[in-house]
Specification:
Blueprint lengths: L2 H36 L2 H27 L18 H28 L3 H45 L3
Helix pairs in contact: 1-2, 1-3, 2-4, 3-4
The structure holds fe (ii) ion (2 copies).
The site of one fe (ii) ion has 6 residues, from helix 1, helix 2 and helix 4.
Length: 164
């Protein structure tokens, strides 16, 4: 593959990844707002932390696009899903991560095959972090299912403990 072509494809894939990161950041901030409003403090905090992680990923991807002399598109892959029930939020967040991991695995392979080791490695690093998110969302989703009302009660109690 010609050198310009190879980076053209990388830029395209990096922009697709950036759109997914932007979507995840907005989605998790939405979940953060809802959980915060309901007093589900630990969940609210985790969603905020994850949103900030995704924003950092957006930054990394945008920097790489600019380094490759591409244009940063800064769009969303899709709109925010307005589910407000904790178990559904966690399940949706888990699904977002699974889809992203799948895409990054494909794109890591493709950019590696094209000989763009820098982008290849960036996708590999991101996969590790998204797997961490996915694992955490899955665990919380399972706990929310297993403990039901008790799970939510503990969240609210934690909120009270930190009341000012
Ligand atoms: Fe991410
Ligand atoms: Fe993530």
């Amino acid at each position: 593959m010609a050198i310009e072509k190879k980076y053209e494809r990388s830029i395209e894939l990096l922009n697709k990844a950036l759109a997914e990161e932007n979507t995840a950041a907005l989605q998790y901030m939405f979940f953060h707002f809802i959980c915060e409003d309901k007093g589900y403090r630990p969940l609210a905090q985790y969603f905020k932390k994850a949103a900030i992680d995704e924003m950092r990923h957006s930054e990394m991807l945008a920097e790489r696009i600019l380094f490759l002399e591409g244009a940063v598109k800064m769009v969303l892959a899709k709109g925010v899903n307005h589910v407000t029930e904790p178990k559904e939020m966690l399940d949706y967040a888990r699904q977002l991560e699974v889809a992203t991991i799948e895409d990054y695995n494909m794109w890591s392979k493709e950019t590696g095959d094209n000989g763009d080791a820098g982008t290849h490695r960036m996708f590999q690093n991101l996969i590790e972090q998204e797997e961490g998110h996915m694992d955490h969302f899955r665990l919380e989703m399972e706990n929310a299912g297993e403990f039901g009302a008790e799970y939510l009660a503990l969240q609210v109690v934690d909120n009270l403990k930190h009341a000012e």
